[in-house]
């Protein structure tokens, strides 16, 4: 989506209904600085206030995301285009999340191994050595749960039996046996267990 185009459309729509940035911000219970950021293309409205924003500006969500008024005869075509763009953006965001998971995991493991080696080889009492290793273990344990959360929400898992793609619950991902990002889980559609691969797209 073109943030600059959307921002200009928000500004045009606001002026058309006769609001200042401050008046629109007050109606949405936000700051006029946030409205200014939208209109200059620095950010997009949060999804939680998009419907209210569109109501105040007398436009549709599809028009907002397209950054232009849409003629009725082109409405369906524009809806499809907008949906495809949103899907593409989600896929790109999921790829970035999975890359972040990989980078974070690698850094944390290297740091943990280094810290344990340091604690093992320096000349300190055993109690001090233990006090050095325990926080590192707690840190890597917490980080592991965060990384699993990233893996759960980014992309989908594909059932090897019926090929249904879905986002599993966090607990099912945590407790599932796994090899890399392939996990042995029960499919919510066919109710069969299988080794399910992580995929980016829904279809």
Give me a quick take on this structure.
It is built from eight helices and five strands.
Any overview of this molecule?
By secondary structure, the protein is of the alpha+beta class. It has three domains: 3-70, Orthogonal Bundle (434 Repressor (Amino-terminal Domain)), CATH 1.10.260.40; 84-153; 156-199, no CATH class. The chain is built from eight helices and five strands; from the N terminus they run αααααααββαβββ. It has helices at residues 3-17, 21-28, 32-39, 47-57, 61-66, 75-121, 126-153, 170-175, and strands spanning 156-158, 165-166, 178-179, 182-186, 193-199. A five-stranded antiparallel β-sheet has the order 2-1-5-4-3. A hairpin with a 6-residue loop joins strand 1 and strand 2. Helix 2 (21-28) crosses helix 3 (32-39) and helix 6 runs antiparallel to helix 7 (126-153). The longest helix has 47 residues, at 75-121. The mean pLDDT is 87.
Supply database-style keywords.
3 domains, 203 residues, 434 Repressor (Amino-terminal Domain)
Quote the distance from N terminus to C terminus. Answer: 21 Å
Q: How many helices? A: 8
Number of strands: 5
Global Rg: 24 Å
Q: What is the residue-averaged pLDDT?
A: 87
Q: If strands are numbered along the chain, what order do they take across the biggest sheet?
A: 2-1-5-4-3
User: Could you give a short account of the major beta sheet?
Assistant: 5 strands, antiparallel
Q: Which residues form runs of ≥5 with pLDDT under 50? A: none
What assembly state would you assign to the polypeptide chains in this entry? Answer: single chain
